[in-house]
Design a protein that fits this description.
mainly alpha, Four Helix Bundle (Hemerythrin (Met), subunit A), 5 helices
Length: about 110
């Protein structure tokens, strides 16, 4: 089941309907999101909400620019909670975020 809530129309608008450019940006996102997710996991394991906030902020922004609404929403919730010094939302939502990022690999 694909829960990405990908707004491809929005993403195409971001790249002036250049399908090739969108594909390139998706490939870049796949690489960067893997790195951001690794940082997020490590930050949560270390109990570091500042580092977790940075990784979730990066994921949120990149996902938003590509119309990946579900990833954006989960990352935004994690970022907001981390800004308050908490890792509760990150711990609760990391499995969902990992599942969404795995679905992203299918695009």
């Amino acid at each position: 089941m694909n829960d990405l809530c990908w707004n491809k129309e929005f993403a195409m608008g971001q790249v002036d309907n250049d399908e090739e450019l969108l594909h390139e940006l998706i490939m870049i996102f796949k690489d960067s999101s893997a790195s951001d997710m690794a940082i997020l996991v490590q930050a949560v394991e270390k109990g570091d909400p500042v580092e977790a906030r940075g990784a979730s902020h990066s994921l949120k922004g990149a996902a938003a620019s590509l119309g990946l609404e579900a990833i954006r929403d989960v990352a935004m919730a994690i970022e907001k909670d981390c800004r308050e010094g908490s890792l509760v939302v990150a711990r609760e939502n990391m499995p969902q975020l990992e599942r969404l990022l795995a679905q992203m690999l299918e695009l």
